[in-house]
Every structure is written in C-alpha cells, then in structure tokens.
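Data availability (excerpt). All sequences and predicted token strings are deposited with the supplementary files. A representative entry, Septum formation initiator, is shown inline so that the format can be inspected without opening the archive.
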Amino acid sequence: MLKSREIIIKPYSKKKRKKKLRRFLLLFLSLLVIVTVSFYFFLNWLIKRESEELEKIRMKNQQLKSEIKKYESSDKAYEELLRVKLGYIRDGEKIIIYK
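Structure token line:
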C-alpha cells in the first residue's frame, strides 16, 4: 500500500517580511543620503558662484564711487570728462578734425 503524504501549508514567515522591510528601509535611507549630499554640493556651488559675482559688483561699485569723488572734488577732472568723452568745447575754440 502507498502511504499518503501530508500536505503542510506553512504560513508566510515573519522573518522574510522583516528582511524585506529592512532592505527597503536601507535602500530608502541610502537614496535619501545621496540626494541630500548632492543637494548640499549643488547649493554650495550656487553660493560660491553668487559670492564671486557679488564681489565683482562690489569692486565695480567702488570704482564708480572713486570716479564720482574725483569729478565732484575737481573742476579740472570734470572739464576733462566733458571735453574728451563728450566732445564739448569752450566758447571761441575751434575743432580741427583730420581724416
């Protein structure tokens, strides 16, 4: 006679469920760390770029302030600006242009 075989149905193991959950959490945390670090480096790069641009603007502003002081303090510098850059002449002067 043949022996009958028993069919055993095992419930889903809780250990497997815990392993899957741990894997998922580990993957999620590692992705979170990668995104956070890359975001940090991106913001750091933006801050550096903007500070360099701000420094250039400050230098240009300082140059313009010194130029304004030069023109306010001396009539000679103001007259030079008018004559050379803007092409003004005094009364009675004549301009000769060579081509």
